[in-house]
Amino acid sequence: MNVMTENKLTERILSGSEAKLVSLAGNASARKNALDEFRRMGVPTKRHEDYKYINPEGLFRLGEFMAKANVVRPVTSHDVEEMTIAPGAAKVVIVNGIFIPELSKLDRLPAGVTVKSIADAVVSDAIAKKYHSTIANDSSDAFIAWNTAMNESGVFIHIAKGATCNIPVHVVHIASNEAASTFHPRNLIVAEVDSSLNVIESFDSIGPVKTLTNVVTEVMVHKGAKLNHYRIQTEGDAAHQMNTTCVVAESGSNYCTYTFSFGGAWVRNNLNISFTQEHTESHLYGLYVTNGNRVVDNHTIVDHAIPNCMSNELYKGVVDGKSTAVFNGKIFVRRDAQKTNAYQTNRNILLSDDATVNTKPQLEIYADDVKCSHGTSTGRLDEDAMFYLRARGVGEASARKMLVRAFAEEVVNNVPDEAIKAYLDNRLNHLMS
Amino acid sequence: MISIKNLHASVEGKEILKGLNLEVKPGEVHAIMGPNGSGKSTLASVLAGREDYEVTEGEVTFNGKNLIELSAEDRAREGLFLAFQYPIEIPGVSNINFLKTAINEIREYKGLDPIDPKQFLALVKEKQKLVELDGKLANRSVNEGFSGGEKKRNEIFQMAMLEPTLGILDETDSGLDIDALRIVANGVNKLRSPERSFIVVTHYQRLLDYIVPDYVHVLYNGRIVKTGPKELALELEEKGYDWIKSDAQNAAV
Ligand SMILES: Nc1ncnc2c1ncn2[C@@H]1O[C@H](COP(=O)(O)OP(=O)(O)O)[C@@H](O)[C@H]1O
Ligand SMILES: [Mg+2]
Q: What is the ipTM of this complex?
C-alpha cells in the first residue's frame, strides 16, 4: 500500500470520526486534540515496526467498520447471564462501548468500591478527572488517540485506601450491532493504597455483523495495592478488537494480569506496564488458542525505570488452522534500574502446517546489576510423548488433547481465583473437543 | 499369542531388523538378550507400533490379528504393553488421569462401560502396592521428577493397571539396584498367568534369576541367532557374546 492510499484511509476514518465528533458529549477540545494526534500518526501500516505482522490497515480497507448508523442489536439479561465467568461477581455491562446500568448488577459491591460510568465520573469525580487520559498517552499510539477522541462511555472502577473487594468486578464488553461499526469503550481503574481488587474484563460479540472494539483501559495501582486484572476474549468470528491497557504501578504494589484470547477474528493486545517507584512487582500471564483464519497479537511492554522491581511474564500459544499468532515482549531496564529482576517466557505449539507464529522477545537492558532472562520456543507436539500415551491405549485425538491441555494448563494454573480457573478449564475443554 | 515371521524393519532408510522369527505361546516368558545395538529396542518399538519404524517385509500375528495394520493405540487395546527402556516425562499430564483415560478407551474398544471411579481407585491402590510405588508418585505428572527406579516401577504399575495379554519389558532392569530389581521382578511374577505372556529384553542374567524364562533368545544384527533354555543366559553371562557373533558370522558366510 503506497503513501497515497494510506493517507486516504486515514482521511476516510477522520472524516467519519469528525462527523460524529460534534454529537459527542464531554470535553470537545480534548477530543479534537486527540483526533489531531490520530491525524498526525495515521493508521499504522506494515511499515510501522509495532504493527508489521498484522497491519491494521487491512482492517479498514473496505471502510467496513465505519457505518454511520449505530443500530444496537438488543442485548438481554439472559445474554449477559450466558457470559458469566465468576458466579458471585459484580457485573458492569458495556454494549457497543456504552455502559448499560439496567443490565449491570452492582448491588453486592462492598463499601469502598465505586463502579460507575466513566462519562459521568470524568465530570463529577475528582480522582477520575485526575487520572483519565494521563496513563494512556494519545501521542504514543493512533488507536489510543482515536479512542480518546471518540469514546462515549466505559467504566470507572475505584477502590478506597485499605479496602478489599471480596467479589470480582466483571466488566462485560459486548459488541452487538445491526450494522458494521467501531466502538471505543474507555475504562479507568484506580486502586488506592493497600487495597485489593479483582477485575475481569470479558469480550463477547453477538451476531454476524463485523465490529471493531477499540478499547482503552487505564490502570493506576497505588502503593501496596494488589490488583488481579483478567482479560478474557471470547468474541465471535466477525469481531475485531484493538485492546490497549496502560498501567502505572507504585511501590510495594502487585499488579497481576491474565490475558486469555480464545475468540475473535482479529485481536491485538497492547499491554504497557510502567514502574514508577521501587519494590514493585508485576506478573503477566497470557494464553492464546487460535484456529481458522484468526489473528491474535500480544504486544507487552514492561518498563523498569527505577531500581528494585520485579516482573515475570509467561505467555503461551496453541496455534492451529491457518491462524496467525504474534508475541512481542519488550522489557526496558533503564540505566538507573539496578537490582531489577525481569523474566519472560513465550512458548508456542503449532498444530498445523498452515499456521504461523511470530515471536520476538525484546530486552533492552541499560543497567548492569540485574537478573533478566527470556526464552521463546515454537514447535510441534512432542512425538515421543504422543507415542507413550498411544502405546498405553489412548487414542490419537485424546492424546493430542491431553498434551495440549497440559501445555495450556501451565498458564491457567497461575490463576488464583478458583471460579475463574474452573471457567477457563471448562472453556478449554470446549475449545479442544 | 504372538507370531513373528521374517520381520524386516528399517528406520531412516537403514535396515535394523533383518528377518526375525519368534513365536510366543500363551503363558510363556521369552527372554531376549544380545549386544548393544543389535535391534532389541527396535523390535519392541516395531511391535508397539512406533511410526518412525517401517516394516518392509514379514508378518506379525497377535491373537489372530495382523498387528502391523493396527495403530499403536489399537495394539494396546488388543492387549499389548511395552514397558519402555527410557520412560519419558510428560509434565502436566497426571499419571492417574492418563491411566483412567487409557483404561476407559481400552474398555470402550472392547465394548465395555467406563470403569466405576471407586473401582478404579481401589485398583490403583492395589497395584501401587504390587510395585511399592509411593501413592504420591501415582498422582503426579507422568514420570516427572521420578528417579530412574521410580520410572521403571511406574511402567510396571501401569502394566499391572492395564492387564495386557503380552507384556514387553525393554531393559526394565537396567539402572535398578538389587532391591528395586526384586520389586519389579516380583510385580511381573504376580502378573504371570497361563493366559499372559512376556517378552523380557535384558542385558543381565540376574533379572532372569527372578523372572525365570521358558526360553532365552540371542538377538544379533537384526536376527535371532540362538535360542535355548534358561541356562543359555548363564552361559552368555560367562562367555559374553563373542562366540555367538563369530558363530553367526560363520553361518552367514
Ligand atoms: N530412531 C533411530 N534412528 C536411527 N537409528 C536408530 C534409531 N533407533 C535405533 N537405531 C539404530 O538401530 C540399531 C539398533 O538399535 P536398538 O534397537 O536400540 O538396539 P538395542 O536395543 O539392541 O541396543 C542401532 O544401530 C541404532 O543406532
Ligand atoms: Mg535397547
A: 0.95
